[in-house]
Amino acid sequence: MVRHPLSKTANKYLRKFKKWPHSPYKTSWHHNFGEQQAMQILKQATIEMDSSQQPQRHNLQYPFLLSTLLDSFKGYSCDPTPKAYYFVIKTLTDSFQLHDIPPILDHLEQVEKFETPEFIFVYLIRFYGNVDRVQDAVHLFFRIPRFRCTPTVCSLNLILSLLCRKKECLKMVPQILLKSQHMNIRIEESTFQVLIKALCRIKRVDYAIKILNCMIEDGYGLDSTICSLIISSLCEQKDLTSVEALVVWGEMRKLGFCPSVMEYTNMIRFLVKEGRGMDALDILNQMKEGGIKPDIVCYTMVLSGTVAEGKYEKLDELFDEILIFGLIPDVYTYNVYINGLCKQNNVDEALKIVAYMDELGCKPNVVTYNTLLVALCLVGELSKARGLMKEMGLKGVELNLHTYRIMLDGLVGKGEISEACIFLEEMLEKCFYPRSSTFDNIIFQLCQKGLINEAMELTKKTVAKSFAPGASTWEALLLNSGSELRYSDTIFSGLLSTN
DNA sequence: GTAGGGTTAG
């Protein structure tokens, strides 16, 4: 930047070489006054333009606002200021007169001599990005030096975040990074942050991790916000496996990353979902070692992970630990523990826990009962299951679709076909449909017993409820219908009319 | 000081 050699207060936009010396009356005060007046005229012109007066083209070569700008400053013998250009550009973007922007930029580049402040480009690039004109944004970014402006990491970060917003623009990122080197822009930690954030947002955690590795290789410190972002994105996606996630986690930890409750929780949830209960347990232990007391939610997730992996000794150990640490198990925790007991065929113990829950003021819910019903039906304890269903009703626990399906499967599984049929009708009344395989099974069993008419009737009833039985039902009916094929004809037409 | 995250079922 060229400064007036004699005065620090000299206006930085003055041309260095003037043809004429300043008039003794033209002081800096006059100058500022002139600039202010010129701006006033420009602003006034904009207001008039807004109030639907057709812009008059003073000079056909230039857009109205540009010629107004030039004329008004000329009228006060001042050079146009960057502020004036910014004002014009902002006015044009606000009113979406995008076609007038290029000539203004051309003029700014070719005629003006001042060092254009970067914020003008930052503004325009952001605007182009917001109106989906990424290509214009990129061109302007590359063009910045031609405006006698040295772009900084601000412009770079901005253009990168715009490009990362869209998948199809991602491929331009390396080119921009390369070019920014030639433009002498020094990449900063913030640049990596921009890239990583953008990549996480578009769910490309794999790329985000690569960038993180580049950062580390370049000697940048590990930023906890970035790590946290990567971990949470990692846990939300499906492309990277839990093993890969654990590698990233391990590397971050090696580099000194101290996860917070949120990261631990995210990791535990992700690992449990991926069926890696023991790894989740490992994270829980890391949490404790890191001085963070896991809460009941973390424990509950890990408990369910141990049940899923069948590590029942760990289940008991952890449940004890919860109590030792003074945490209070809630219905979620008990449900997981009860499920664990049921999986070990220890339904009696599970039933005891349910009674115990009541004593502790923790009400069993529909999940608790469904878990128990599954276990009872599995071992054929249908009467106990029926009793439990009654208990649900008495305790005001509402039966849901799963409750009915579990019971129906229990009845069918035990060959209690006539009770199953009655139960199914009850279900249909409430618009609870059985699993298609269960229905097929019922029809198959009815047909096997020679109860073809009953099978037909049941099918008709279900079809009437807009429930479409599976192929096996039709097959069973057709194979067994013999001379009564006409019945199935009516069923078919019933099905067709309901669809 | 906060919330939210967690359970069953094929």
Automatic annotation (TrEMBL):
It comes from the Eukaryota. Transmembrane segments: none annotated. PPR repeats lie at residues 188-222, 223-259, 260-294, 295-329, 330-364, 365-399, 400-434. Pfam families: PPR, PPR_2. Keywords: Repeat. InterPro entries: PPR_rpt (IPR002885), TPR-like_helical_dom_sf (IPR011990). This is Pentatricopeptide repeat-containing protein.
